[in-house]
Amino acid sequence: MGYTDHKILPSDITPQAIFESRRQLIKLAAAGSFGLALAPWFSRNALAASQKLSVLPNPAFMAKDEPTSYKYVTSYNNFYEFGTDKGDPIANANSLQTRPWTVTIEGLVKKPLTLDIDALLKLAPIEERVYRMRCVEGWSMVIPWDGYSLSKLLNKVEPLGSAKYVEFISLADRKQMPGTKSNIIDWPYREGLRLDEAMNPLTLLTFGLYGEVLPKQNGAPVRLVVPWKYGFKSAKSIVKIRLTEEMPKTSWSQIDPREYGFYSNVNPLVDHPRWSQASERRIGDPKGMFAPKIKTEMFNGYSEQVAGMYTGMDLKKFY
Ligand SMILES: Nc1nc2c(c(=O)[nH]1)N[C@H]1C(S)=C(S)[C@@H](COP(=O)(O)O)O[C@H]1N2
Ligand SMILES: [Mo]
To 10 degrees, what angle do helices 10-30 and 38-49 make? Predict the structure, then answer.
């Protein structure tokens, strides 16, 4: 059942969800994980989390699955700029300054553009869409994201005929992002899509979740969401979008091209060299580690919308 079927609106759920996540954090704090630094961070973060966005649910993009609770969506994260553990982003991302913030769209476009984040936010109506998300590590969530199709921004800058790919570059500031002091990634975090993938209506330029501005740990103030690909393709805290003729070098394929390809479409038939991709574990299942694994679907269940972009391609080769 999708959450739109519930009688409760996201705006009603959210304060409760925040309350729950606070309780969880208080428990963690009591266990000593946060230490004395908790109090000031805590109140600021709760404040940021309560900023509402005005959103319009788009019925064409509502996964039927039960959404993952706000608590898990905002506390079990991958955001290596703030550390490599799932709990690091919520603990460390408060140092990220999301204003002022600009996003530059450049490269092979007729009208390059640098936009203030608040202007970017107003470029098109913000839709709420419930997407299934699948991490390459084998877990998944179902998240109500708020944003608009990236194509609306790309059309504005008018891609040139020679543009074949789109590169996304995240912020990398050592002062704000303690994780960037490690050399696990050659910062900044970089991702890329083929131009047709970037123009696909499913590809969401995302400013919020559950009807609120993005929590910092989820990639504030603006990130990408590409639900038919493994989670790492959905770059967070984007500062630059560049249209190119050549396939861009992406962070994960640079780390290990055998393990992480450029396409990284969710595909139960193509295993990661070190593990199977045929099934997944839904985060937040009340049965926890004992919850039955669920079958991973081709293109994460979005075949109808995206399979046509790959006809004739050997997806075992172009993984
Ligand atoms: N800049 C940046 N973007 C990133 C990552 C990251 O480490 N840095 N992690 C990726 C991975 S592996 C996943 S699964 C998703 C997680 O998004 P979420 O924490 O909002 O669920 O973000 C992706 N985007
Ligand atoms: Mo991921």
Answer: 170
